[in-house]
Give the backbone structure.
Amino acid sequence: MRRTAGPALLAPAFLVMAAALAAPLGALVLLSFWTQTGFEIDRTFTLANYWRIVEPGPPTWWNGIPFPFAYPVPAILLVKSLAMSLTATAAVILVAWPMAYFLAFRVRRGKAAWIILLTVPFWTSYLLRVFSWKIVLGYNGAVNSGLIALGVIGEPLDFLLYNPVAVMITLTHSWIAFAVLPIYVSLEKIDRSLLEAAADLGDSRWARLRRITLPLSMPGTVAATLLVFIPTVGDYVTPTLVGGTQGTMIGSLVQQLFTRQDNAPMGAAVSIVMMLVIAALVLVFLRAIGWRRMRARAGA
Amino acid sequence: MTPLIEIDRVAKRFGPVTALEGVSLGIAAGEFFALLGPSGCGKTTLLRILAGIETPTAGRVRIDGQDMTGVPPNRRPTNMVFQSYAIFPHLSVAENVGYGLRYQGVRGAAAAARVEEALAMVQMRGLGGRAAHQLSGGQRQRVALARALVLRPKVLLLDEPLSALDKKLREEMQVELRALQAGLGITFVFVTHDQDEALALSDRIAVMEGGRILQTDTPEGLYLRPSDARVAGFFGTMNLIPGTVTDPGGPGPAELDGGPFGRLRGLPGPGLAAGAAAVAAVRPERLRIGGAPGAGANRLAARVSARTFLGDRSLVHLRAAADGRALVALVAHAGGAAAPPEPGAEVTLWWEAASGLILSA
């Protein structure tokens, strides 16, 4: 009984994962080794798609950075996506951390109500939430109308929407609630007597925050960072709706390769490269912050 | 001489709950002082007020002549050993112990030397590199102690410091704490619910109940001269017979009308008034069985219900003839004295007026 209980409990999740994640992923990997020839797919094994992503060529300049590739679009979009996603992630953590702190340390009664309030945005679909930012930032949107009504500006501002900043604002907003919860849990777990002891040993409020609260919240903060960073790099709904031509990200390219450009194998290769780069970055990040040591402490 | 710690009519309310009602107390420099009482008596609240973690609703605390009102914990000459020990889990032993040194301007090699010295003091020399999660319960306690002592506070506050340890370790730590305190000369104030621990460690004890101090005295004083029936019952065994005060006494003995027990006399405790409820109190070792009572002795009839042989003594359990109340006498066997009576025997119990107390109930 005991020996079979573990696998039995794992089986449902395992089957779903195998069907919904591993199989498509395998198909994607396979696809990336094929080539598109007109309307047909040539199924001979080749690394040509990957070679095309890294093939050297005369440098293309983007924001002062040279990209020495013959086909620089994937590389440029990858770097751009990472930068935008990192900025959005940083913004999310900066906003979510104080919110989680407030929930964990200041709210005494009705915590459940606050947590339910946090999830209110999720009662509508992701698409609607992103779309609502079009209404806020648009040419005739809430911000422009408001500023015109107040007499601050005479003409609507046209730089609010359809650019990378709009994408980052929207991403930040969409992901805050996901970040608050893990940070909140790690803050909630901090034994209050540790903070009393720190004060007793001479710490001011700020010193206590820096020396005790912040380090002990790291497991949750790191989890929140990854939770936001990993999915936002490849997002394509947000850049498509509010990004315009300047705000495109790598997800938009993958989508275009699969649909409009009708080059699924190339799209697959770009996806795989994106995945590998994100995985490598995450590993370097975890290594740098000493994740293993942190986990050992949390387990104590 | 003014005491090092002056607690002046300190009260603390948490919403509708009163944790402390107007407690006043003086603690001298170099004293090992215990706050003793059952849980919820306000002893931990009082300790936390001394540390500055809680602010009193009324009253004030002075330490070394300085008013502590509004002074946060990080600016007080006190350090605390927490009941949970509060060892910082993300820091090593040495980092834990050296945590507060930077605020005394001690850094680098000087700080490392102070940390090592403090670790040696608690028998943990050379263990500074250990991670917090590798420590046993006893080691955590030592680290917490070292972390507070390294700052050389005027007052060390200890909140139930030994309650999380097993019996053997607790007894070892009692001896060590006593030796540390004697060696350092720092004033220790510690909170405990354990009478034996308080008796074993402290110079003086404040017995607390319901947010008040019942009595503050040396261990001997509390045993020999309890101020009322509650304190009397708190330390050791005490035979108590209720009644009404007929003569509050002072300087002579007081007298109580014990109803079916008749008139009983004893040394007067504080706060007696004629007509008020009181108890006659007498320790088991002061009770005599049989023999020849003196002229002014208190006496009562009882039946032996059981007997426990303890080697040099016997514990005799009796029931009073008047109301069946359980009483205990401790009979010494020294000098070939008569063996204590068998169970079932009808005896006369007696004690000298000067051996008993009349205490307000």
Summary: The longest strand of chain B covers residues 298-309. The mean pLDDT of chain B is 91. Residues 167-184 of chain B form the longest helix (18 residues).
